[in-house]
Amino acid sequence: LELLQEPWKMVDDISALGLRHVGFGIPTDLFGPLATAYIEVFGRYVADDLAVEAYRWSIGLISQMLVQTITEGSTIVMKAINVNSSRQLQKAVSCAPRGVRASWVLLVQVGSQSISPLGWSIESGSLNAAKAMLEDLLAIRADRERYYYGLEELFARHPDIVHMLCADAPSLVPTFLEGLVWRSRRTENGSRRVNYYVKPLLINIEGKFADALSDFVMLADPKIISQPVLDLCSNTLWNGIVRNEFIVSKIWFIISLFALMMGQAILTEWPSDYNIRCACLAFRIFTYLLTMCRLMLSHIRDIWLGYYRGDIAYFYGLPVPRYIKDIENFGGLVLGVMLICMCIYEPFFNCIGAADWPVETCENSHSSLFKYSVFAMCAVGIHWCLMVDLSVFSTGLSAFVLVCAQVGSEIGRFMAALLFLLLLFASSISVLEHDYPDMRDVSMTVVALFSITVKLYEDDYRDFQDDPILLCMVFAFVTASAILLLNLLIAQLNCSYVYIYANMVGFARLKRAEVIVEELKLTKPAKWTRFVGTLGLDFALELNEGDVGMAGGIQGNELQSAHVVTQDRILRYGGSCAQDMQWPEDGMDKEDEDEDKLQKMERIMKAALAKISGSERKKKKHKSGGSGIGNSGVSGSSGSSGGSEHSGETEDSDNKNASSVL
């Protein structure tokens, strides 16, 4: 009924379904039997001939539309994708006119519906074909009039191509990034010119910051983020706009730490006169008003938005906003809570009304001074820990911090194992009858054994040598903790450090890229527009001297030894410049043809050898049978001779085929 009520909509839906069948490689020969089966099953349960005829008509019409859609959409490119053959895809694309070559791998349209061969190959897992399409799109070709580079067509068709690659085909990311770089063969003073075509990675269609760098951060691959293209993008954004924004965002944090230190650790050590007490009170009020209020308002807003938008995560079954999973955000929340507790137990506030106010010590503050000192200690420690975020200014320092954070998990496992040993031996020793005073109960024994482990125990083992069982227990603990666990910890740290050291610069760049993404979300559009204008992405870049190429990139230089460039990446062709002409065959196509010939000859030779070995087995079988019965032996020998003649003929024909291939 919908086919008659809304024919345009149904035709679009059927066309979309047909294009999906094109992607799956469904043959059109199956639609006839399928339609017949539908009609037969429907006719068994419906007695009305008119309804059966109407159903037959509708099924036949839908089948015809699907067959027509599949026929029109089954291009040679889609057929190559279905078999996941890069060589077949290269041959298919070589038939395309140079002006529309990119559209052959980006668009297959039937009516108002379309499908992307590149997108379908990535989605279906045909990565060989997808890699061949990426290489063809990002190849730079040139005739005597213009350059052909499919980067703009790629992002116009797939603005989310970076997200597609990072999510579904991470193995193709290096191929994609390498296609954005042009390196000159010519060197001058030990360096060569390099063009990085990174405009789509920096700017989206609307002129805003693109999501490409965010996708690479989510991929969290230190080797990928260290690629020259992404390194250039990160450094350009960091030096151009993010560094100043980051410094401004951290100034208040540095000032709040200064105020906290002055009010808690510096002025409190000075002589207690009236001016010093007033200054100390002023710094503490400044901390409560600036740091505490700012932190709590920010976290209350983020917590409300997290629950309102449903962006939550579960922590031991409890729903919490997802942003708290970040260690820096969690540390900021804990710091705000510590400052609130400090404000509640603030001695200056509790002593209001004292004769010599402002003072910290009075009758009302004696009971809360220790609690206040504990909260102040935690606040100062957390504040200093949050300052580690400033290490992103130096890649080396950031790498060292990340190494320390990564090996912390190994230390945590060691401490868990050591705690188990402490409880095990402390519980065992506490129930043993002995006269040693430092190991009377479990708690004292834990302290004593831990002191022995870290070489801080003051007594000597000869103090309890008169108790051999206790001495054996202590020696067993030392063997398990100081010898086994400590050496195992050293081995684990060594293995972890070797892995992290190989990628620590990549981890540092990954951390900086994460900061860049977070800061650019808060950047004003006007400032971003001014920054983009300074990059000159709309101007054509010069390739070699006097050769003006494509726009949309940033030019730089690299050391001659950084990469080996033996041939120019630009494929240049002479002849006609008409855009409806195909590109001439290049050397790569000839190499592929030669390789095809060699593979074909190899298959022929394998088939010939298989037939020869089969005939030899038949000979042996007939000879063994001829030893029993004479007639059968004669027939067997004749059969074997005939088989050998046949095998000789087969070998001659295969040799002829091989020579014709060569």
From TrEMBL:
GO molecular function per UniProt: monoatomic ion channel activity
Chain ranges passing through the membrane: 251-268, 274-297, 330-349, 369-402, 414-433, 469-490
UniProt entry keywords in alphabetical sequence: Membrane, Repeat, Transmembrane, Transmembrane helix
One Gene Ontology term from the biological process aspect of the record: calcium ion import across plasma membrane
Region Disordered, residue ranges: 609-662
GO cellular component, one term: plasma membrane
Designated name of the protein: Uncharacterized protein
Organism field: Polarella glacialis
Lineage: Eukaryota, Sar, Alveolata, Dinophyceae, Suessiales
